[in-house]
Amino acid sequence: MNDLCADIGYKSINHYGEELCGDHVDIVERDENSTVIVLADGLGSGVKASILSTLTSKIISTMMSEGLPIEECVSAIAATLPVCSVRGVAYSTFTIIHLINNETAEIIQYDNPQVIIIRNDKNYEYPKTEMNIGGKRIFRSSVSLCENDLIIAMSDGCPHAGIGLAYNFGWKREEIIEFLETMSPCGYTAKNLSTILVEECNKLYGNKPGDDATACIVRVRKREPMNLLFGPPSNPDDCGRMMSLFFSKEGKHIVCGGTTSTIAAKYLGKPLKASLKFEQSDVPPIAEIEGVDLVTEGVITINKVLEYAKDYLGENEHYEHWNFKHDGASLICRLLFEEATDINFYVGRAINPAHQNPDLPINFNIKMNLVQELSECLKQMGKRIKVSYF
């Protein structure tokens, strides 16, 4: 078992004036060692294209996740979605990325822009084998993966960006590669990098996209454990055991909550240094304890982290907020969203007397719900989550 994992993220923009996107991305994990990613681009735009791309990606990802060979998957698509008799082009094009043990990527491409691989911050020319399945010209590749590899799949809305506006013939593949080579060393997550790429396309379209544009990115990276402590245990006698388990874990350590940080400081025998500097008004200031990577306030800060997490999984409109600010919530977001792959939550069930104030909209159930919702969001980001209650 290797220590590599895949960070997968995608972003789409709709054709100007359309409510639905004609591109669709489907990600199916067969098990821990097999992940299938399908990016399908339906003919045209709007409702019809959305249905065609969704149907295509669902059929392929479901069949491949069940272990059926690519020939059968493509034959099924060929039979289900014939070529348009008027335009003579396919009703839906697709790109398939099959990750095996996060060591090998099988890439199957049909009429979408060719997948780009960035290795060591430079374009990597990978081998392609041409196949003919059901009358369709398919390109197949098998690539051995290395740490920090970026695999970029796109719909044709990306290279078509800027036609007649910024460029005569759109955003050329070489120019997209140059853009990605510049961004690669920055260490962006797959989601953030796909967002940046698609936002650049949107600018080239003059914020009025002439086609649906989607970028799906896979970032190969090493596993990185992270530990977050939130709240004191319900039984004060369990403080020592809780702290011992928390600090014995490999990886960085985040402590959230006033009482919790006091207990942690006492356990470590180090002073708790508070800060009165407010980075932003709605998030309380952070503190410091020697031996702890980050110390923050509890419920209000975690609630802000959850707000950012939900946005990250959706439109990702607020990534510039938490990516550059230094308040507690933003710092936690960078650690959990960007750095961590395996996150251990240590959650205390003690009821905070301060939260029993009827004027405060905080209670024990809200605290537990925050942990549950944040855990689910992080799982959707592809993180491995373990929650221990005390």
Secondary structure elements and their pairing?
Blueprint lengths: L3 E10 L9 E9 L2 E9 L3 H20 L4 H11 L11 E9 L3 E7 L5 E4 L2 E2 L5 E5 L2 E9 L5 E5 L18 H11 L6 H15 L8 E10 L2 E6 L8 H10 L3 E5 L1 H11 L4 E2 L12 E2 L5 E3 L2 H15 L5 H6 L3 H12 L2 E6 L16 H17 L3 E6 L1
Provide tags for this entry.
single chain, 390 residues, alpha+beta, Phosphatase 2c, domain 1, six-stranded antiparallel β-sheet, five-stranded antiparallel β-sheet, 18 strands, 33% helix, elongated
By CATH, the architecture of the largest domain is named 4-Layer Sandwich
Judged by helices, strands and strand pairing, the structural class is alpha+beta
> What is the rounded distance between the termini?
32 Å
- Count of spatially separate domains: 2
For this structure, what is the CATH class of the largest domain?
Answer: Alpha Beta
Low-confidence stretches: none
**Mean pLDDT score:** 89
Amount of beta strand: 25-35%
Total strands: the figure is 18
Strand order of the largest sheet: 2-3-4-5-9-8
